[in-house]
Amino acid sequence: MSDKILDLNLTVYELCTSDSGIIPILAEAGFTDITKPGMLATAGRFMTIPKGAALKKLDLENIKLIFARHGYIVKEEKK
């Protein structure tokens, strides 16, 4: 079984098109608009999870924990 990696440097569109299982987890984490038709193809093309979390005032650490509970390894570039 391969590891499920969540790369926070990728856009939401890139993440969701490579793994459709990410969409319901994003909705659970507070990104409920991602399930609306067209959102993934518009805002998702330039929005990353950290940018979206800041915009929606969601706790990024909590989002990482939710993905970890679903078996994802969170990868992020330290700047």
Kindly summarize this structure in a few lines.
With 79 residues, the chain is α+β, with helices and mostly antiparallel strands.
Descriptive account of the structure:
The chain is α+β, with helices and mostly antiparallel strands and 79 residues long. The protein has one domain (4-75): Orthogonal Bundle (SP0561-like), CATH 1.10.3910.10. It contains four helices and two strands; from the N terminus they run E-H-H-H-H-E. The protein has helices at residues 12-18, 22-28, 49-56, 60-69; strands at 4-7, 72-75. A two-stranded parallel sheet has the order 1-2. The chain is globular. The model has no long low-confidence stretch (mean pLDDT 94).
Strand order of the largest sheet: 1-2
CATH class: Mainly Alpha
User: Topology as H/E string?
Assistant: EHHHHE
CATH architecture: Orthogonal Bundle
Give the N-terminus to C-terminus distance in angstroms.
Answer: 31 Å
Domain count: the total is: 1
Give me the number of helical elements. 4
- Using only CA atoms, what is the Rg? 12 Å
Main sheet makeup: 2 strands, parallel
What percentage of the residues does DSSP assign to strands (E)? 5-15%
The CATH superfamily is SP0561-like
Topology:
Blueprint: E1 4-7, H1 12-18, H2 22-28, H3 49-56, H4 60-69, E2 72-75
Parallel strand pairs: 1-2
What distinguishing features does this structure have?
79 residues; alpha+beta; SP0561-like; two-stranded parallel sheet; DUF1858
